[in-house]
Amino acid sequence: MSPSRIAQGVNPLRDPRDKRLPRIAGPCGLVLFGVTGDLARKKVMPAIYDLSNRGLLPPGFSLVGFARRDWADQDFGKIVYESVREHARTPFREDVWRNLADGFRFVPGTFDDDHAFQLLSKTVAELDEARGTGGNHAFYLSVPPAFFSVVCQQLDESGLSTPRPGTWRRVVIEKPFGHDLKSARALNEIVEGVFPPDSVFRIDHYLGKETVQNLLALRFANQLFEPVWNANYVDHVQITMAEDIGIGGRAGYYDGIGAARDVIQNHLLQLLALTAMEEPVSFHAQDLRAEKEKVLSAVRLPKDLAKSTARGQYAAGWQGSEQVVSYFGEEGIPSTSTTETYAAVKLEIDTRRWAGVPFYLRTGKRLGKRVTEIAVVFKRAPHLPFSDTATEELGQNAIVIRVQPDEGVTIRFGSKVPGAGSMEVRDVTMDFGYGSAFTESSPEAYERLILDVLLGDPPLFPRHEEVELSWKILDPVEEFWAKKGTPEPYAAGGWGPASADEMMRRDGRHWRMP
Q1: For residue 60, which of 6, 130, 12, 138 has the smallest C-alpha distance?
Q2: Which residues contact 132 (CB under 8 A, 6 or more apart)?
Q3: CATH annotation of 3-174
Q4: In sequence order, what are the residues at sequence separation of 6 or more whose Cβ sits closer than 8 angstroms to the Cβ of residue 346?
Q5: Cis bond before residue 334 (omega within 30° of 0)
Q6: N or C: which end of the chain has fewer CB within 10 A?
Q7: pTM of the prediction?
Q8: 288: CB partners within 8 A, 6+ apart
Q9: What is the C-alpha separation between 459 and 307, in angstroms, rounded?
Q10: If you compute the radius of gyration of the chain from its CA atoms, what whole number of angstroms results?
Q11: Is 510 a catalytic residue?
Q12: Which among 295, 300, 137, 292 is positioned nearest to 204, based on CA atoms?
């Protein structure tokens, strides 16, 4: 096998005809900016260990940390060790750890320190020789978006962003991808001015979840669902991401961003696109992204945003048995804040398949439970000969895809009550759960996404066109809300403000209770 094929992440030991074998990254390394943050400690570092433990990283894989700390390599290694022991998904194995730790390096410095980036360039070059990383390196920007520009410019000026022939350099950036359409375009120009578009990986960790990917299998691997997956049979779709926690210590990030920018613009609109898209020609990145972009470009906002959107802020109250403070009671939140912690919006998709079917998106903090799900709710049967004996519990058929925490799929349908003398019908459910159906546990989303970065496999990463289309949808809502003062308070532990329920009642519908 040629060196260029190995550099592209192709495993020389794998028979390319056997698609059942796991994909294994070729020689490479990862440079992690922001190693002191929660994301790096709780997600990225444990995911790297778990990938190594599963045999999916090359033996010479290297991890370079960059931060404003006076650390030696062994100090950085201690941080990674503590992170792995506390948060790794797979069992700790000493031999795996020792081999992985041999590739740890640390470079101290600030993002505007030219000398530090020269030292980083030297460190990366040394790893190519010492660990056999082959000139292939990904740069993971686990830093606030305000620093994306300066880091990318430093990578450019130090030569780190420019690969030698037959090698690759890639950049990974975390959301938020801007705070509106204008800033997103400016950010894309900066990043893609340094790295070519196919070397830019925008992480949306929801797209790495097994259940989100299973949505594609559910739709396109089964003849059962496709005939009814359209406006002829679907009444509406609800996409929910609810959290039972407050903002915690994230006031500096969250205030001024809010629930809609934090969740709807990226996570929920991506789920909407996957739910509503047409079948792609293939699941290669170009074909999959093209279908998602068609959906996002066809999304329309209702004319009356006052009746088709809702927003709120959580008030003090009880979350289960715990007494919690209001949003204004959180440390670092000013009493004049108009940032929403709950957002709901009604959208329509102007295509033949979905014309007339509303998509309801909602997200919030301090809600009744932690859950993310997609509920496809079907129209009622046009004629029910047993309507006189149907119970009040008989609702509408539904397919519910549970993204987290109990990953799986539930189908709701009507069934006769056993032993009843007449045709008494009520709702029942048929349930599929990942945990009970498969012996292998689902990997963390960051495992899948980091491996895809190292392999150069981009289908699960939105490109800049998707990001900009999403902002075009949300910007008018944010502009409308900006004129409306303070969001409506709602009780902690409940399911959001009254205005969200009223939005559904006007349409003759109600929110599904997970």
Answers
A1: 130
A2: 27, 58, 60
A3: 3.40.50.720
A4: 302, 308, 309, 358, 359, 360, 361, 503, 507
A5: no
A6: N
A7: 0.89
A8: 280, 282, 459
A9: 36
A10: 24
A11: no
A12: 292
Return the CATH architecture of domain 208-506. 2-Layer Sandwich (3.30)
Q: Where exactly does CATH 3.40.50.720 map onto the chain?
A: 3-174
Tokens 């093209």: give the residue.
Answer: 290
Read off the tokens for 513: 């209770």
99, with CB counted inside 10 A (0-12, 13-18, 19+), is: middle
**Secondary structure class of 486 (helix, strand, coil):** coil
- Which of 267, 284, 383, 510 is an active site residue? 267
For CATH 3.30.360.10, the residue range(s) in the chain are 208-506
Q: How confident is the model at residue 393 (pLDDT cuts 50, 70, 90)?
A: low
To the nearest 10 degrees (0 to 180), the angle between helices 285-298 and 464-482 is 20
Cis peptide before 176 (omega within 30 of 0): yes
Q: How many CA atoms lie within 13 A of 363 on its CB side?
A: 18
Could you tell me which of 495, 512, 187 has the C-alpha nearest to residue 369?
495
Model pLDDT for residues 234-275, shown as the tens digit of each residue? 999 999 999 999 998 778 788 989 999 999 999 999 999 999
